[in-house]
Queue: 4 jobs
Job 1
Amino acid sequence: MSQAASLAPPLRSRRMHMQGTLPVLVLFLPPALVLFTLFVILPMGEAAWYSLYDWNGYGLPDKFIGLKNFETLWRTSAFRTALGNNFLIILVSILIQLPLALWLATMVSNRIPGAVVFRLIFFMPYVLADVAAGLIWRFVYDGDYGLFAAIASFFNVASPYVLADRSLAIYAVLAVIVWKYFGFHMMLFIAGLQNIDKSYIEAAEIDGASRWQRFRYVTLPLLAPTIRLSVFFSVVGSLQLFDMIMPLTGGGPSNSTQTMVTFLYSYGITRMKVGFGSAIGVVLFVICVTLAFGYRRIFMRHD
Amino acid sequence: MTEALTDRSLASSVPAPRPHHASVFEENRIGFVTRLYLYASLFIVAAVVLLPLLTTALGGFKTLGDLRVHPFGLPTEWQWANYTDILTSTRYWQMLGNSFLIATLTVALTLVVAAMAAFTFAHVKFFGSGFLLNYFLIGLMFPVATAILPLFIRIRDLGLLDTYWGVVLPQVAFGLGMSILLFRRFFQNVPAELFDAAFVDGCGYLGYFWHITLPLSRPILATVGIIAFVASWNSYLLPLILLNTEGKYPWPLGIMVYQGEYSKDWQLILAFITLTILPTIIVFFAAQKHIVAGLTAGAVKG
């Protein structure tokens, strides 16, 4: 078989086989279509519909209140805190986690003994459930028993109750997020580094570029697609962050660590306010759409 | 032929290391100082990653008093009972069993449904196929939370609330976009000659799917399966909302209930956490190559 033939798009020479398509279409497509429509698309549409009602989930939604849910939402200070926290998480992911991940990726990409072990160790927190990671760090931060208590008593200072402190709690949460996710981003960068053709770097070296210059002017620009990917995952991850917050703080103290989804949970779901909760879902939806399109416009032009 | 095909397809589906330019910097150019700096940095970061995990595992062997006095370090007296009590309780095995059952059902259904749909998109030309594919890809953009309350009501109205299927079906549905994308890309790389040869031999689409596509697709089946399994095993939000009998709780829910019950008996909670994450860690190290490749393939190719 010639190489060219096997690389040609496989869809071309099919005209003669058109018989037999019908059974495939009838058998293979509907299961996915039904599942997806029933549990993804319809609920999203219904969220938009329910968000205009005041409804507790029983009977039919009949108390139409227009955009009042959205108005209430905006006037709830906990929601504005949640939005701000989501933004803060994205900021920390980009300014701290991303450089950390990239730095580590360049180090473990070296062929040094033990590099593979380090990669695995760094990736391990990513595989753990958010809930487990949250609980482990709840212990670490515990002012009576945890590691922070031990460190404080070692230095003979009063032990801090980090997670109970309104102004500190969110930073404690941010630290756990970086701890859990930097390994995943590092793996993205390792894959990105492997795809860089080494001859570019060799050429730069022959031209007398220093190690930093080679990184800054050759490696970094070539990594641009990976960096965009990493940013994308940080944004998506931030918008759905929930599991980790619940064991750590549950959104408290006094709502200082709420995110969009924990806010949705404590204000919409636990109180069975379907209309109000759906309105939060719609806001989340709009943010996702805006980001997706904005992202495309800004970044994907060159790809 | 088969061998070569599988190898090439595997290489294109996962970001496998490529030896010819695996390292950006050459080994022999690393001096002693650089090497020292490298290892020092790596060890510090590794310590930050491992310390909480080790403290948790060791903490489970301590008494509460011991934990309070020295949370670091080895226990003064090893309290094996903390662990054995949990291991002999039905509660622990029940919630791991629940998680396993839900994850297995999710994986099985995802593989069947997504592979069939992706096969259609990869091989059958029909009116509206591009539109339909994009329809599924919408699922990639939105987190479950955007539709969680209507989803709850739908599951309730279908009478699936507090059942395993009530959790499995939405999990499969929300994973479909990514799974179809990964499958389709793999199926398209199967050479056209195989397809033509099969049709000449009188093999229809269904036979082709069963006898040729699926046996060739083991790598991508593994990748999609791993992504679905890990997501389901760790999933918390959906079961939290859709299940309400404690006997049906998967472990992330069960561990939160346990934590609520023994709120200040940290030694027990730590032992419990250790035992619940142990399966994950064992499987991770046993199958690390596949898991790392699988989880990053989803990201890179998606």
Job 2
Amino acid sequence: MKKFFYSQKIAPYVFVLPFVLTVLLFWIAPISNGVLLSFQDVLKDQWVGTKNYTRLLSDKIFLKAILNSLKYMIGTLVLLIPFPMLFASLLNSKLMVKANFFKSVYFLPALTSVVVVGTIFRLMFGEASASFANQVMEALGQSPIKWLKGVGTSYIILLLIACWRWTGVNILYFLAGLQSIPTELYEAASIDGASKWQQFKNISMPLVKPTTVYVLTISIYAGLSMFLESYMIFKGNNSPNNIGLTIVGYLYRQGIEKRAMGYACAVGIVLLLSVMIVNLVQLKLTGTFDKEEK
Amino acid sequence: MKKKVLATLLSVAMAATLLVGCGSSSDTASESGEAATESAGPGAAGTTEMEVEGDDVTTLNVWTFIELHQQFYTDMAEKWNAENPDKKVKLVLSNMAYDDMHNKLSLSLESGEGAPDIVDIELGKFPAFMTGEIGLRDLTDVIDPYRENIVQSRLDIYGKDGKEYGLPTHVGATVAFYNTEALEAAGVDYTTIKTWDDFKAAGVKYYEATGKTFACVETTAQWMINLMLAQKGGDYLDADGNLAVNNDTMVEVLQYIKEMQDTGAFATVPGGQPDNEEAYPNYNSGDYAVQIMPFWQTSRFTNYMTDLKGKVAIAAPPVFDTTDGEYQSIGGGGTGTAIIASSPNADLAAEVMAYIKLSETANEEVWNVLGFDPVNTAVWSDTALTENADNQFVQYFVNPPFEALNEIKDNIGTLNFYTDEKAPSINNEFCNVTLNNIFENGMDVKEALDESQATLENEFQ
């Protein structure tokens, strides 16, 4: 017994065991069950072969859900990577006054519940002329807008929520990355006469790349699997003309609202595959899989 | 040794926090329960627990999606307990949002766990629970004692293959609600409106005089659309029950409404239909004057549009042609109370709910408390009840509410698609896509319907 526990060969496996068990129990098991269910009609309890998948191919609403999710993901990537990186380097700069105060202010929105935020945004962007957004429009001399009924306006609102909520979190990631860069590099650069912008471009950006790749990876996943924000601002899973329908929203609609659990599983598998493919391509392109240079 | 002590201490601390966690959570649960009981008016949300004395009491869990129903069920259950001291029940009522409740129910039936004993299922969602293995109890036996007084068509809409699974609440006859004050100021006399053409002309006249909207065109419900469709003998399905939402009658109806919208007197309303929290203020303030809604809208008036007290008249809805004997009205919406078959108390629950919803007292209370048109039409002509001066609904409306109902009583239609299992998906498509395309985005009626037909065909393939 003692020999077993003190064995250097076995010890590592004992240490990773809890993690492996968790993955098996809460990830691999449900995913394989999902794959099996996606070939069934759960309500009738029979195997239907690839019918769920062929139906997906001709399902225009599913296509719309994918496009909506993609659009949202791209929007969040464009807004939530460069700007937080910039803000983080500003906060990291010695010239910044009250940096800690701003750090917490930026981070505060992340602590609020999406349910509350979504409800407040829904009310702010209500259709009535008395809603906050329409009051602002009126002050600007514009006529009221049906914010949550238009494709463009509802997209802006969703991005607004995402930015308001996640900018602070991404700033923290980038700050951590920036602070691990030795200050000597900057000193050397400034002695050589590099401007602040050149320092940012040639020192900060390349050296926070691991952080950027990490943020990119989780943002791709978060963007494609967005559900709650849309659910809250449209007060349910149904939006006019499905402008707010996301892949997960469609999964929820099919599996829970329409009780087509098998079809919903097929949707889920497609989501899993698309997130994986997008991320693998992205990781390949950013060179994460390359061997570290020695 | 030191380590051992430390480890023990830590374990004790952990166990203690666990216990503390349990204790505090059960405390809060009972507190909120009591609080809910105290404030259990019609407006109270969340969980309401009845207080029943005695030992031999069966607790029944009830899920509702309309909080107004809770008070009614509790009142009726108290009457049941008084009449049946040997079969006392205690209702624990939970109110949830419409979508949430139906989703939770479908999940719990699917998984076989967590379902209540009794549940209110909305008409539009009912067919979804009639597919596959039905998890609801057949109620034919408990309905039998009350059957002779009940409008059969309202039982049929919750049935399948000769079995009945839902207890109806009301007929939901569609009527017209006119804001008389606003109309009179514009010189419009609602009593002269008999046909849809009259309705449209009155709208134009009103709009020209006031610049305000006469009535709404619906985008998130089909109250007026279903009425017009039934009057023209149409449906969402063809004669064989196949999907046909792009049929000629449907095109004709939506085209007619589209032309109403084009006059400017009719417009979409925030929330998309009169029975919506965003829409109520628009009617309450007089920005929209008329609603074509099922009779149960009365309760929304008294609860959410209080400024209109003494200004609203109820009339028979318009028809296309007064001479061809077409339907005068149509049953709209509805809540079928169902019993979960797997509940250990299913039989008692069925008996109690049949009493709560179908007995004569129940039908009187449906009017007195909820303001609905009860399924026992004998109540409709009982003027002692329907014109009782103490009744809040009688006080609220300009004319006796049942006047219009008795006028249309023998000519209330229905649509075949109500009981079809395709209905939930069709409703979903109409309320999200079709009607929005037509009335918000200005899409051609036929084109929009063709597109929805294609979407739905794909879904049912």
Job 3
Amino acid sequence: MAAPSADTAAFFRMEGVSKRYGGVRAIEKADLAVTAGSIHAILGENGAGKSTLIKIIAGVVAPDEGRMLLDGREVSFASPGAANAAGIACIFQELSLVPDLSVADNIMISDPPRRFGLIDRNAQRRMAEAALERAGAADIHPMALVKDLPLSRRQMVEIAKALARKPRILILDEATSALTAADVSKVFAVLKRLRQEGMALLYISHRMHEIAELADECSVFRNGRHVATYPAGSKSDNEVIEMMIGREYRHIFPPKGTVAAEAKPVLECRRLGWTDRLRDISFSIRPGEVVGLGGLDGQGQRELLLALFGVLRGMTGEIRVDGAPVRVSSPAAARADGIGMALIPEDRKTEGLMLPMSVRENLSFAALDRIAPHGIINRGIEDGKIEEMVRLLSIKTANPDIPVGALSGGNQQKVVIAKWLMRGPRIILLNDPTRGIDVGTKQEIYQLLRRLADEGAAIIFYSTDYDELIGCCDRVLVLYDGTVKTELVGEGITDRALIASALNINAGDGVPASGAAA
Amino acid sequence: MTDTTSDPARRFPSFLRRADPAVLTAFVCIALLLVFGSLYSTSFLSPEYLLQQLKVASFLGVIATGMMIVILLGQIDLSVPWVVSAGAMMACAAAAYGTAGVALAIPFGVLCGVAIGLVNGIGVAYLRIPSMIITLATNAVAQGLMVVYTGGFSPQDSAPEAMRWLATGFLLPGVPNAVLIWAIVGAAAVFLLTRTTFGRSVYAIGNRERAAYLSGIDTRRVVLIAFAISGGLSAFGGVLLAGYASKAAQSMGDAYLLPAIAAVVLGGTSILGGRGSYLGTVAGVILITLLQSILSVMQMPEAGRQVIYGVVIVAMLLLYGRAPASR
Amino acid sequence: MSDWRYRLAEHHGTLLAIGIFVVMFAVYTSNHPAGLTANVVQTAANKGVLLAFVAMAQALVVITAGIDLSVGMTFVLTNCLASWLVVGSPLETTFGVVVVLAVGLLCGAVNGAIVIYGRLQPIVATIATGAIYFGIALMLRPFPGGGVNEDLADALTGRLFGFVPASLVTLGAVVLLVWVPFSRSVYGRAAYAAGSSEVAAYMSGVPIRRAKFMAYSLSGLLAAVGGLFLTFFTYTGEAAYASGNAYTLFSIAAVVLGGVSLFGGKGSVIGAIFGALAFRTIGDLLFVFDFDPLWQPLFQGVVLLVAVSLGAFALFRVRNRLDWFA
């Protein structure tokens, strides 16, 4: 255990750390100083670089440049194990527990107590019990299997596991999002005690009231850059939001269209629910509308799109298309003629494309039933359609027979969109379609979406980039914790309103959380 | 050498992408084997010998075609040994039932293979059992059924005339029927894989089943059909073998599992699925057959052949078939 | 404290396998004309331990979410080797046993190296190495033959104190000397963790590669113990292709019956042992109920088919269809 240092000088520093994924900057020249005996909150909107920052500290990814200093010595971590050994423990959002092992096995997994080289189970159990006790989770039996525990209990095990390592720096990445209110207050008491004992805590959360209660210091990140560090409580919510807003470039968005007020909705959802991830979601959309999904990442937006597209099982509620109830039980059903849905999925590399296959094969894949009567591909029809799509979206490819993986990210994304446009869909669902692509292609996609809407398509557009929601959407549904908390319309779609409602605080000119129009 | 990118094809321009380096290597190996064999005996380059090899290769070729489709999906079919035997035995058995039996012998044998393939397909596609396990299990069941049926001995029924003609006769002068059949099966496979929705779906599922499913393809049905085809072709291979030998035998299929997988993999089809051409499988089949022939002409005992097989497969896989480095 | 409930949950696959075996064996002995005598038990034990050793070997690899299709061939190879080496004076015999075990260990290590460091799929890699091991076995014994130190063989296949089958005692000793230390070491823990969730194991800083390599190597060692015992029973070595294949297949069946998940991370070698004994008892049951022994392969196949299909019920709990493709 780290002894509380005599002075409050930072014992861990990051200096000028940068990381790029492909051509996309995740974090650039970031600085951070961590002091013993304090809780340091990290704030920022989606894509601000928070997760990359902590992944670097925890040894999950290696930085491209910059250095990290621990006790004045430069360090680098080749793996999470190495970061652990240096006294850094991280509680990740994606749980790092092994489901088939017991709670005690998991808590002590990196360094179990040993006798004669073998794991001493009695000692292990005592230590695990002590760690659970310390984490305020003495109700969890150390011999229970992790996979049998509910999510909130697993999260407590994760916290106990981190504590059992007696780290000097403890990183909590949205660690409370799965917890019950009772657990949260227990965990807070634990965290405050740890601070007193001299531990340094990095706390990432989007819950402003938690940060207000816990943090000693706050650092704000925006677009991968460190914006400011200030003592907690010295800024108002509004000032904090102001720091999180602000971009370096502004896109040019096409003018928004007008939807005939009397147009009948093409898609209506009534009280949709799915496990604990989606709750009571109702909305409708008319032809020609672009409806955005906002909110922080992971609030159910992805699940909502998958639910509409027939991927999720055990849904409750009702989906109506053209006023008639439909049952969509697979993507094949969703794309069929009566419904005419298309989904541009989240990850084009694993869900949208078959990278080693050719542009041709990828483009015609979702519309094979159109170009292959009786299952036999008609090369004439196929060539015509592919030429049309390549021209329509100006996809830059030497010829349609090269592997799609050889194209640039932007052109790959165009292929994903084009393969669905080949079917002429009426309802288009997009899951963050501009992530990781160049500015030029983004502009083209904005133009395309508006043109499709003008031609009568209904578009549901989830984006983690608030700028896009403001520029492209006629309405935005802001999701929080699996349900629609706020609906922003027209001029009401502003930076301030989006961030405030995403954080579920009532600041500025956001519409109060009052549920969405049905 | 350490081919760790997820997409090695990207490194080649389009005209070279078609000519997979693995296929080229396999053909180079075939040429080397022939040269090497001709040093040993000049008859290795005679048309009679080559035609004979092609004929022997065609049995493996038919079986490997089904295996290839399954491997393209990223799955594997280990039920080949007893599906081959079952196809042969059931065809011969049907022939014992009068003229109708004789007429239906071949379709009946193939249908038995299709039935076993359907069980495999249901297990893999709908129950999500690893293909390796479910096909081992159906192999055991097929063996059990055949043992019960034959009483543990080689069946007495002999292959009907039609089966013998199919395997050993000549429809076109100079071209053995077996070779002709392989050519037809191969042409059908090429058509199926390159020109149909089914073929595109097979490659897509092998590359990324998730993406194929999200594109609205009924991936489970495609997997089911692929396994049924594999079972049918294995059984058809058995029918041909029974025609060639005039009768079915207990463990006649045992010698075809490893060579079928090896031929597909040596021909450049990725064992992880999604990549491979039928031309490669043809090269792999011929390569394996020639290797066997030369080893036996050189009087290499079975033991040496097994070791050489194993070493060749591991070596070729280490060249082409490695999974990407995890990080 | 209700520890027993958690112990039950942790070991329920193993306990189920023990239960199945006990019921089957009770039915068998109560219908056996001779009843539960030392002789009946000894015969059953000697038939069962061979598959038990091979199933243990398979289980070690399956726990890491791998598979070893060469395990039967390692078994045959070590049988052939033992028929040359495990003969002569006590010193020579000891030397022979050590060499046979070392060769088994090497076979497993080769599999492990190819799968882990060569990054090949375990299915194809072990099919290929299986061919190599069988080829070597065939070189050693082109025809059945050879011998074994009969004193040792009789001692290990006979009875201790007149009623305890020595083969079962050896099985227990191997469990104590190989499985218990491994499973309770950091590497055993890591093998389970890697099999259950490789990502979580990596995030937890667990030695994944070394653990898997050890599991494959020890698997070869256990298959070699099985090969030794085969030699003790038959007094000869035989490179039998069908027998090697059958043992590979049955080992998978035994592992599944024994509650070891083919997806890794779950179950134990003890379960695999009882799975193997239960699987062997199928044949005995057919015998006491006067079924034609010809039905045995079919019964075994159907049991295997049903056993592997049972795992599919977890599918009905999947709420997100994309999880099918994980």
Job 4
Amino acid sequence: MLSYLLRRLAASVVILLLSSMMVFLMVAKSGDPLATLRLNPHIPKAVIAARSAQLHLNDPLPKRYWIWISNAIHGNFGLTIGNQPVAPQLWSHMVVTLEMVLIATAIAIVLAITIGVLSAIRQGRTFDTGAAFTNYLFISIPVFVLGLVLKEFVAIPINSAIGHTVLYTIGQQSPNLSGGFFSRFGNYAGHAVLPILTLILVVYPSWSIYQRSSMLEALDSDYVRLARAKGLRPSRVLIRHTLRNALIPVTTVIALDFAAILGGAILVEQVFSWQGMGTWFLGGITNLDVNTVQAYLLVTAFFIVLFNFIADILYGVLDPRIRYG
Amino acid sequence: MAEHVDLRPGGRTPPQVGSDRAGTPPRRKARRGWGKPGKLPVAGGESRHLGDEHGLAGDARKQWQIVLRRFVHQPRAMISLGVFALLGVGSVVAGALWKYSYTTLTDQIAAPGQGAPSWAHPFGVDPIGHDLFAQVMQGTKEDIQTALLVAVISTAIGTTIGALAGYFRGMVDPVLMRFTDLILSVPLLAILAVLGNIAAKQSGSWLWVAIIIGVLAWTYVARLVRADFLSLRERDFVEAARAIGASNRRIIVRHLLPNALGPIIVNATLTVANAILLESTLSYLGLGIQPPQVSLGTLVASGQGDATTFWWLFVFPAAFIVVMILCVNFIGDGLREAFDPRKTRVRA
């Protein structure tokens, strides 16, 4: 097990390094970050040359990569196009995104497992067909459409029915927020409900479908038949024998879906104007802010590789049949 | 049938085993099997020639017919296919015949109290004066052609990579699979956004968008085909083909690929749904299809600000996206059911 762990860890580090090279190359080749400065006739050539040297634009690519990656490992992601350090911006935006993503993922997992298990138990009945249709519907709605529908056709009518704003549709909190802890918390929650709900509805259906099928497979297995034949209580059979085993494949699917969740978060932040990593990243792309874009991609790659590593380990821990040589 | 059972090794020995397993052979056949060379005769025994071209073709045709029959008997999939075909053909025909083009500025504009859907403009007009029906038809057409091209590109790349990795194993497999991991190590949408921004500056045409999505969206097919090939390559008919002296290329193309075709087709269908999702998302973010071209994503983006006052600007394009993706998902589901009726539904 230990040697397997170390080998996986080494493979993850290699993937992360290769990924950082790919990202660096892709972004470095994507355009000239000083193009707008060069077009401006009022900026002297010397200034542009200085900025160019500061961003290491004149050095060969391998050298630029080396400078970038060795600084990034020490938490220094260079300067933005507006001459600000990237790292503080990255961390503050990351907190916003991770809060949203983690809360949404936790709720979505519970929802997906509940719906998946109930559909499997009631296979072919009304609940199952209803859940299947809902799953397909939400799988087929793009994130931005779902977000906009919730914003324009759910939140606004609810707010106007109640008479004051309960569900905020823009930003993480009201500007000039003051007051006691509870009123502030209420304000945060009012802003967070819709984005988190959108993210939940986007990610849960595929997990729920997966949970249902792995549950059906477990229900059909010999060990469940044996447990029933032994005369165990149905609830015990269901939870200890069926669900426990049916959770194994789903765990890894959820961990592997982390990239998709981060992708979804970009859009949720965009629709609800949250100042998270996604919005920050898109801003970086349109401004050709090389260091911002690279920092975002490196950090997300780190999280994704980490989650894949965890998924690998979990698979071995949860399923005793897996033996690593 | 009796002949079939007789030929199975140990098929007849204890009577209770025979009766117990009575349902197995046809089930097996339905689940696997794409006219395998060396397979036992299905009915009269006329196809019992190892690797015989005619026997193979006859068998394959029967399999196709079985799949087709199973597909046709699913109302949800058939209705979805009909709707999707209608959208595809309709958007081309309507785009050509409709009195306005998607670039025409009509004499009406969307303003408080006017521009709503009417007989002259079934989907209304936008604040500049474009006829929204013409725009939605054009967007649908662009979306469908983009998605189909993405499915072709990514299925071709994914099948090739998966087939090579699964068949040759050795050094090829880890290299190709680590390459796949590498692509998966960054959110797909994030890479697409970076590349989309580059492509958008060159040209905002659907072709570029389709190419960049296509060259990145193949990872799932590759893993699927690799897994299939890893198990198929150990089967007897591959051994037989190799013994006859078939080249690697021939074994892959003529023997292994036909056996893996079911999952590949199902997955290609789901890729179409995914491509519509990705394309409209990129276009919504302004990193996909660029004005003056329209896609349903750009239409939603320009309509979102007025979604409550000029609802038609948001509702029609958004509804078209959702209906298209839903239809393709249902078609994919129906195909999976047709190819593989035993397998429980698992979505990637």
